[in-house]
Automatic annotation (TrEMBL):
It catalyses: sphinganine + octadecanoyl-CoA = N-(octadecanoyl)-sphinganine + CoA + H(+). Pathway: Sphingolipid metabolism; Lipid metabolism; sphingolipid metabolism. It comes from Oncorhynchus tshawytscha. InterPro entries: Lag1/Lac1-like, TLC-dom. One of its GO terms (molecular function) is sphingosine N-acyltransferase activity. This is Ceramide synthase 1. Keywords: Membrane, Transmembrane, Transmembrane helix. Residues 90-304 form the TLC domain. Residues 340-368 are annotated as: Disordered. It is found in: Membrane. Pfam families: TRAM_LAG1_CLN8. It is a multi-pass membrane protein.
Length: 368
């Protein structure tokens, strides 16, 4: 197929059939594959400067400080002003921060893919046209990579030390590590075009998730019930479920995985780290399927009447302990505002969280 011709998007059967043929053939043809070849390939094809690494760490710290500043100066005061329930007030800043970031990052990815000359979404195989090792990364895509890469570097730290601990938080840490690895290596090996498409297909679901959670928190506040937030949370939940499947389980494998598994070898027969990158992308797909099971379980509970309203699917470890910690956090905040800490509340907190520490009103184990 010529470069100027757009290849139709394949179906699941085409993806499985072509990938199961192409990948084993590529493996059989790699007679010299091994550790030594990987080292030489890494040295010959990876291009990243110390300046870029420094910018990554600076921006990762910057995101952490921005989040802390927004939490202390905006999100927490707003939650108190709205008189949210203690457990919701503890979780609201995290969702607010993520909603702000993902809205910004996804909007920028959308701009690059649909309002510039890039054709990666409509013609995914084009991501590998004219690929050359060490090729210059366009400035607009380099900015997107710096924003996303530094954010996921921050997110690894934030999941462990800042976010409320949930029962899938360990999987979330693994997700962030894999995502950061994909971002870093795809940039170094100049696979930035496909990376931009991956980011676009994933960020929209995070926007809808945090929007839905915020409306769940705000539908019961100040001792009252707000129908508009209940309606918005249900609408957000339905939209989230649909787009999760459409973007992550339909477009992601048929656009991204087909391009990386099949089309990449057509454009660049000896493309470096072919199996490594596809392994990471396949792992990301497996995680998307894992989280989709949460969504299916949620829908099943709603349809069978086991759940009457939308709740946070990513349940906390020890919900009773989380509620007790949130109550104690509120007592501490009241004492702090008065200029002193209530000794009995502090003692109770220490006793109830032995071997744990408190973050955002949620008790967390000190280890993963």
């Amino acid at each position: 197929m010529s470069v100027g011709e757009v290849e139709p998007m394949p179906g699941y059967a085409d993806l499985i059939t072509r990938a199961s043929t192409v990948m084993p053939s590529a493996l059989r043809g790699c007679s010299t594959c091994g550790l030594e070849l990987s080292k030489s390939t890494l040295l010959d094809n990876a291009y990243i400067t110390w300046t870029e690494i420094g910018l990554f760490f600076i921006c990762a710290v910057m995101w952490t400080q921005i989040r802390r500043g927004l939490t202390e100066c905006l999100f927490q005061p707003f939650a108190q002003w709205c008189s949210l329930q203690p457990k919701d007030s503890a979780k609201m800043p995290e969702s607010s921060w993520k909603l702000v970031f993902y809205t910004m990052s996804w909007s920028y990815s959308t701009y690059l893919l649909f309002f510039t000359n890039y054709t990666f979404f409509h013609d995914p195989p084009s991501v590998f046209y004219e690929w050359k090792r060490g090729m210059t990364v366009p400035t607009d895509i380099a900015i997107a990579y710096l924003i996303q890469g530094s954010f996921y570097g921050h997110s690894i730290y934030a999941t462990v030390y800042m976010d409320a601990w949930r029962k899938d938080s360990t999987v979330m840490v693994v997700h962030h590590v894999i995502t950061l690895a994909l971002i870093t290596f795809s940039y170094a090996f100049r696979f930035h075009n496909i990376g931009l498409l991956v980011l676009f297909l994933h960020d929209i679901n995070d926007i809808q998730l945090e929007f839905t959670k915020l409306n769940v928190y705000f539908k019961t506040r100040g001792g009252g019930y707000y129908l508009i937030n209940d309606i918005l949370s249900n609408m957000g939940s339905v939209s989230f479920s649909i787009t999760w499947f459409w973007f992550r389980l339909y477009w992601f494998p048929l656009k991204v995985l087909y391009a990386t598994c099949v089309s990449s070898l057509q454009s660049v027969p000896n493309i470096p780290f072919y199996f490594f990158f596809n392994s990471l992308l396949l792992t990301l797909l497996c995680m998307n399927i894992y989280w989709f099971l949460y969504i299916v379980a949620f829908v099943a509970k709603v349809l069978t009447g086991q759940m009457k309203d939308v709740k946070d699917l990513r349940e906390y470890e020890g919900e009773e302990g989380a509620q007790r910690a949130a109550t104690l956090l509120k007592a501490q905040q009241q004492s702090k505002d008065a200029g002193h800490l209530n000794n009995s509340a502090e003692t109770q907190l220490n006793n109830s969280t032995e071997g744990k520490h408190l973050q955002n009103g949620i008790t967390k184990e000190k280890h993963l």
